[in-house]
Design brief:
nine-stranded antiparallel sheet; Jelly Rolls; 7% helix; two-stranded antiparallel sheet; 2 domains; mainly beta; 1 helix
Length: 227
């Protein structure tokens, strides 16, 4: 029986990725040697599975994922380094949060008509648009806003107005005659940067009784940028 010449135990592959020549040596772990006992001919059968699958994966990464890749063989494995190009992986700027929430700390006895309500204790003021000294929210950014008013009354009734730049944009009537009651109103409105928003009692209607507030129930004013 003749001894076949010694064969290399690696298969070398050369191809081009972008502008780089890449050479990969892959151990031919599936090189099958078939010996014929009759004629002692030796046929080498190379199974291409281990070679084609990595090539397909690299082709996908380079052409579809938009990457520049380099690869090498180490311990029989393919290593691929991917660097994304173009717009892939771009981060979008974080949205600006604009929101406030404040409440009245002490009851307001028999407020006159057209009186601006000052919610003197802010607990949230993202964007610094609300002024707790004046009760006015100055819009930091143009957009659609939600404003919510919660009024607690005790043996009282009042009409309340939401004002934007001294124009009425919402009116609600709160009634708690011979009772202790809390009610709310909501306004969704487009506001421009620099516009002022505040709450007042109705300018032409004088209510009766106190606007109430304490630790068991607050009169509050809040708002936030919806879009």
């Amino acid at each position: 029986m003749k001894i076949p010449p010694k064969r290399s135990n690696t298969t070398s592959l050369d191809w081009k990725l972008g502008d780089k020549e890449v050479s990969v040596s892959k151990p031919t772990t599936h090189l099958g040697i078939i010996r014929s006992e009759k004629n002692e001919n030796i046929s080498a059968v190379i199974f291409l599975t281990d070679i084609m699958i990595p090539l397909i994966a690299i082709f996908y990464v380079v052409t579809i994922a938009g990457a520049t890749s380099s690869c090498q063989t180490e311990d029989g494995q393919y290593d691929v380094t991917v660097n994304f190009r173009g717009k892939n992986g771009q981060e979008t700027p974080k949205s600006t949060v604009i929101a406030f929430y404040a409440y009245i700390s002490k009851p307001i006895p028999n407020p006159s008509s057209g009186r601006r309500l000052i919610f003197d204790v802010p607990t949230t003021n993202q964007g610094n648009g609300y002024n707790s000294n004046t009760g006015v929210f100055t819009c930091p950014k143009t957009g659609t806003y939600v404003f919510v008013l919660v009024v607690r009354l005790y043996s009282a009734y009042h009409s309340i107005q939401l004002m934007i730049n001294n124009s009425v944009n919402g009116t609600s009537f709160h009634n708690a005659q011979n009772d202790d009651n809390t009610s709310s109103s909501t306004v969704v409105v487009n506001v421009s940067k620099g516009d002022t928003v505040y709450v007042r009692t109705h300018s032409k209607y004088k209510g009766v009784g106190n606007i109430h507030t304490n630790t068991y129930g607050r009169t509050t004013f809040s708002g936030w940028l919806l879009n």
